Amino acid sequence: MLELFKRMARAPAVDGDGLGTQVIARLAPSGCTLPPGCTAVVVAASGHTRRASASARVNLAENETGWCFHGGPYGCDLVPFAAAPEIGLRVHFAIDSLDPRVSQQRFDLFLASEAAGELTLADLAARIEAALQRELAQGNLELPPCTSLDEWNAFRGGFNQLLYTRFGLTVDDCVPVDLAGTRDFARALAARAVVADAPVVHTAATLAPVPGLAAGQSATPQGDAHALRRLFLELPCVMCRLREAALPQGQDMFRQQQALLRRLDLVCLAASTMPALGLAAPGQALAPDVQLRRAQHSLRAAAALDEVWALLARLEQAGDPGLDSLFDEADRIVANLEHALAGRKRVALEEEDA
User: Per-residue pLDDT tens for 72-100?
Assistant: First the structure.
């Protein structure tokens, strides 16, 4: 009996190696204790999250997943323009502290929907860089040559809000930096040439990347499942943010908001009723090329979801004169979501009709 109590007292601790430096979060098994300065996030199978006390053990129920993360601060170098790798931004950020006003912290949602296994600083920095490059390429953020102080402040405000809305991060500092001495331009050009010359193979095991997506995203069965999980978990949160947006008085803006919410509600329904990737019907396997097309539609929908979060960040800062253009942009993004998810469902039918 005494030996039993000794075994219960020796609770395993989460491996703290690298946490707070090169590793931001890693999985925490049930019954473990947390390293100093870390916080636990418990994710239910439904995607709902809750934070556990730092001084308590991580107790997980059935079908729950535990995460342990260190709040930082962290630092990384970003390349805002892919065509100019020598121009960089040195960013210092931390995970946002607990906000009691919201039911789910944004970083907790990010862990639940996007993280897998271990979230490293390099992985998160790549996601931040991709989001920044997309906003600059679309003209939603501006960082012109010889940036004036007012232009820099406007960029910093938009960038800070983007990271807070998209990842749940707070930017402590952001300064320009010359990265020319850290970049091997010959190797970068050679890598681009290899990617450009690589043949596209349409098989179930090796599926092609979807143009316009961030590096590392490809139309594999794992990529399809990851994209659908993101849509299932994040779309309800997007609707809540849009519903809570501060809008000026007036029926026209209210009608536009309600119309978008109705369409997003149908998009949520479509995302939660998707057919299995590999089945055309119960017991009937789907051809590999049709699986490829299905997975590509899922990734396009996930890319549109990234645009939705960036739009919500701009909506937080927009004044009354800029709301009309933002709602026009929202209409375009929601239309892309509708088209991608409708294509994800119709792919097998299109092949039968052909």
Answer: 799 999 999 988 888 889 999 999 877 77
Distance of CA 168 to the CA centre of its chain: 10
DSSP β-ladder status, 49-52 and 23-27: unpaired
Instruction: Quote the crossing angle between the two packed helices 149-167 and 288-317, to the nearest 10°.
Output: 130
Partners of residue 92 on adjacent β-strands: 75, 173
Q: Report how far apart, in Å, the C-alpha atoms of 83 and of each of 80, 133, 136, 287, 346 are.
A: 9, 10, 12, 38, 37
Burial class (CB in 10 A: 0-12, 13-18, 19+), 120: middle
pTM score: 0.81
Task: Go through 55-94 and write b for each residue having 16 or more CB atoms within 10 A of its CB, e for each that does not.
Answer: eebbebeeebbbbbbbbbebebebbbeeeeeebbbebebe
**In sequence order, which residues have a C-beta less than 8 Å from that of residue 235 and are 6 or more positions away?**
264, 267, 268, 271, 305
DSSP 87-117: EEEEEEEEEPPP-TTSSS-HHHHHHHHH--S
Mean pLDDT throughout 253-270? 88
Contact criterion met (CB below 8 Å) for 24 and 120: yes
| pLDDT of 1 strictly over 60 | no
Note the maximum CA span of the chain. Answer: 73
Q: How far is CA 303 from the centre of its chain?
A: 9
Angle at 285 between CA 281 and CA 286, to 5 degrees: 90
